[in-house]
Amino acid sequence: MFRTLAEVFRHGLKNRSFVIGGTISLLFFLIAFLSYFWTPYPVEDINIAEKLLKPSAKYLLGTDHFGRDILSMLIQGARNSVIVAFVAIGIGIGCGVPLGLMAAAKKGWLDELIMRFNDLTFAFPSLISAIMITAILGPGSVNSIIAIGIFNVPVFARVARGAALSIWKREFILAARSAGKGLFKISIEHILPNIASMLIVQATIQFALGILAEAGLSYLGLGTQPPMPSWGKMLNEAQTFMHFAPQLAIYPGVAIALTVMGLNLFGDGLRDVLDPKLRRRR
Amino acid sequence: MSKIKIIVTLIVLSLGIAINASSVMAAKDSLNLGMVLEPTHLDPTAGAAASIDEVVYANIFEGLTRIDKNGAVKPGLASSWTVSEDKKTYTFNLQKGVSFHDGASFEADDVVFSLNRARAEDSVNAQKALFKPIESVTSKDSNTVVVTLTQPTGSFLFNMGWGDAIIVDQASADKNKSNPIGTGPFKFSKWVKGDRIVMVRNDAYWGTPAKLKTATIKIIPDPAAAVSAMMAGDIDGFANFPAPESLAQFKSDPRFTVVIGSTEGETILSTNNQRGPFKNLKVRQAIAHALDRKAIIDGAMFGYGTPIGTHFAPHHPAYVDLIATHPYDLEKAKQLLAEAGYPDGFKGVIKLPPPSYARRGGEIVASQLRKIGIDLEIIPVEWAQWLDQVFKKRDYDLTIVSHTEPMDIGIYARKDYYFAYDSPKFQALMEKLDATVETDARYKILGDAQRLISAECVNGFMFQLAKHGVWNKNIRGLWENSPVQANDLTEVYWVD
User: Fold this and answer.
1) What pLDDT, on the 0 to 100 scale, is given for residue B48?
2) CATH of A5-32+65-281, one of 1.10.1040.20, 1.10.10.60, 1.10.3720.10, 3.40.50.980
3) Among A198, B1, B47, B175, which residue carries the largest CB count within 10 Å?
4) How high is the ipTM of this complex?
5) Residue from B228, B291, B363 to probe the interface with A (highest A Cβ count within 10 Å)
6) pTM for the whole structure
């Protein structure tokens, strides 16, 4: 049942979406990481004299309406997306998984309470709720992380609960129970390792959604605030230049699309690799 | 067969003609004018927002005098007036046969009521200072009003032409916020909140009737949407287009006319003079030296705007060019900051309202001030928040806003104004100005006032907002400049 990372990787190499998605995602993370050490130009420096330049050797992708280097902004924006999506997923897993495990273990009224609360949060479209939350807490990257994180909680709670319920019916759990292990111990020692693969797959998908949500909020001016660049904000600022400098919108748009596609492909591939049932069928 | 053909052809033809005719008719006497900001309400006597005047001034409401497109004082509801020898008594002869939109007749009592209401203790008028010199308002007969002043006031007739001094009817005055009833050439029809305000021609108008039958103000807050709406023809024009970067595109499009005019909008880096480091004159001087006006105008306004060195419109004859007193000089700025006790700079907050001059200008200003070590956190705010936090509660360090009222240097004499600038010297100057009637003497005092606020660097003086008019080339009669906050539609018409 439990495979080593190397084994997962070996199987993965045979899966096309795993390879393509993984490569794009890896590249994305490397670029985001790179921004901590180096960007071609500092992104906060506005240099009006060099605004709206076409791509050249000096500015590989040209400059925006403030004369900032677009490549640097994209690199910095990648980091920004990673941080927001990563922390938001952390919130989702940190709160959602324990809730889901608890619901599966205790059942009864606690299960009902947690799942109905989940339904309640699910009932609101997540981006609209995130807008609402940032409107109340005020715009800013921290608040957008919280807003996106909150909407990851029910997703993970639901996945954890569903997967855990099916594991609870298995014989080895029965054995553990008859050996006198408590609900909490079983959840941690037996259930969690068995549902981990599903959670990881869900996490990659939520990661992509988190990046989209961050871009959406920043586009609306509720996420990352100036002078920090963000892909969504770049899109917004590019709007009025669409007719004569469309590249300003194309670069961040392509960056968002490519990253989200890469992460989704990677998530799909990973699911195929990790799910033994699916693999056997092939 | 041929009969059917003929009938079909006839039907098609007549339909075509009908459609043509209706579209021509619709284009001839209706106007869709775009506006960025939606007014909070429609009563210019109860709010400071320029957007109110930009809808109702001269269209729905009129005052005793009116300001025309060149900024000159013209007769309004007062057909003529005489001024006494001592310049303290004004006798206004009112227009005859004027009625309000609800049918009530306009008489001297309405003028007395309106002016007394505006200057009363509990008045909510945003420009109460305009009415301060008034000692009494009395009606001599139903067509004559006598206003006596406590002291000669040179700008009194101009002041009576402001949107804040319009004449209302006692019966409908309290409902003007949602249902404005005035005497103007247009009647208020409906207001679809967040979308549009519709006015229709007042056929019972006392003066020259308007040429447009309906005028619709469409609210389009988003600059990108404004570009699209213009290109699609959903909107016939913008008196002040919100995206200066698009003007080049409109200029090259034969469907449109682009008219760059002047406004009374001094765009300034407003500073809270009572807060933290900004109390220190040297800090404010350092900021003045760190502002690169050309970069701000090029970056935020795409070159449209005139640099200013004080709070005064450059096209006004009393303007004094003070840009050179604080030239762009980073070394000097750093040195001043060090002298003030902040060699490593400090942190502050800049709150930015929605217009692009503020949001973009703010990012540029923050980047410029970072060069001398002032690290500004940028907080974008909506207008309502701005009015509440910045304007009312003074909870801010720096902000950017354009003061679009004409001749508004007097605000520096208000010590409770949001700049929190309390200078007895300036207040004395303004008192002297109020008491002076003679033009040359007034200009001299205005010059001194400009020099004083420039020397004290009360605010960061950046640029005079340009008016980027973009409209269909067949429209005539829209204002090129904005001497007052207004979109006067009375003389607007279409040509073929």
Assistant:
1) 80
2) 1.10.3720.10
3) B47
4) 0.81
5) B363
6) 0.81
